[in-house]
Every structure is written in structure tokens, then in C-alpha cells.
Amino acid sequence: MRDNVVLIGMMGCGKSTVGRLLAKELGFTFVDTDQYIEEALGRSIPDIFAKEGEAFFRDWELGAAEELAQRKSQVIACGGGLPTRADSIASLKESGTVIFLRRDPGEIYDNVSMGGRPLGQQGREAFLERYAGREPIYLEWADHVVDVQATPAETVQRILEVLK
Staple partner for 77: which of 32, 105, 106, 163, CB 3.0–4.6 Å? Predict the structure, then answer.
């Protein structure tokens, strides 16, 4: 295993929940790139998107990815759109093993609170279309694909198996 574990996938697939548990199992630090950016800017992601736009956010995301790639022993939960910018995900891939947490997009939309999430405000069909566009990107960058299990703990066990 390389120095870090990098979790990618659509928002709502469980990256943060699974990532925290995985970090505890590995004795690593957990970092969520969206939370990292929110703390750096002192603003929420929806506020950043609304006031500054996606390009501004993606530039900050690139900076966060480059900073985090310099560290070791982390589980990094990436924002769902981070892999869509090759330079952002490339730096993280160099520093760690990339795991795509795959979960049925309809299940994500139906079971995850979409309030306040930029993708959730455009409706179910737009969300499913965005997933269809992102899934090939996730597959391209992933070292391993792990289907989200019934519980976060079961998903963590599956990740630990593929990391051996």
C-alpha cells in the first residue's frame, strides 16, 4: 500500500463515513477535501458555489489536493467532482491507493439528503446524468473498485481486503 488511501465516488456514496472508520482501523488521519476547503475559506461549499462559482472552487480543490498529497498516513475522502479535474486527482493518486466507492446512483439520490448539496438541487434526472458522466472517470483513476456494502463497517472490511 502506498502512503495514503484516497476515496473517490459520487457525493452521498459514503466516503466520509467509511473514511473515518477506515482511518481508525489503519491508524491514519482522516481528511475530507470539502471540509478542508470549507475550513480554509470559512464558508460552506454551497455558499462558495453560489457566490464564486464552480471554477473558483475547483481551483481551491486543486490546491488542497496538492497539499494533501505531500502528507503521509491519511485516508482522504475526495469531493465527488475532484476526479473530474485530472491535475487534482493525479497528485493524490501519486501519493496513495485510489479506491472508487461505487453505490447505485438511484439509491444515493433516494436515500441521501440533497438539501444544500449543489448536485441535489437540479433534480433526480440531472443527478443520474451527472453520475453517468462521472462513473467512467472514477473507473479510470481507481486502483480498486469497492461496492458499498450494507453497513459502513462491512465496506471498510472490503477495503482492507483489497489493500492487502
Answer: 32
Q: What is the domain partition of the chain in residue ranges?
A: 4-163
Task: Render pLDDT for 91-150 as a digit per residue (tens, 0 to 9).
Answer: 999 999 999 999 999 988 887 765 555 555 678 888 899 999 999 999 999 999 999 988
Which residues fall within 8 angstroms of residue 39, CB to CB, at 6 or more apart?
Answer: none
Q: What is the predicted pLDDT for the residue at 128?
A: 92
| Superfamily of chain region 4-163 | P-loop containing nucleotide triphosphate hydrolases (3.40.50.300)
Distance CA 155, CA 41 (A): 32
Could you tell me which residues are beta bridge partners of residue 30? 75
Q: Which three cell numbers stand for residue 8?
A: 473517490
42 CA to centre of own chain: 20
Helices 152-163, 15-26: inter-axial angle, 10-degree rounding: 60
Express each pLDDT in 62-86 by its tens digit: 999 999 999 999 999 999 999 999 9
Instruction: State CA 72 to chain mean position distance.
Output: 18
6, 73 contact by CB (below 8 A):
no
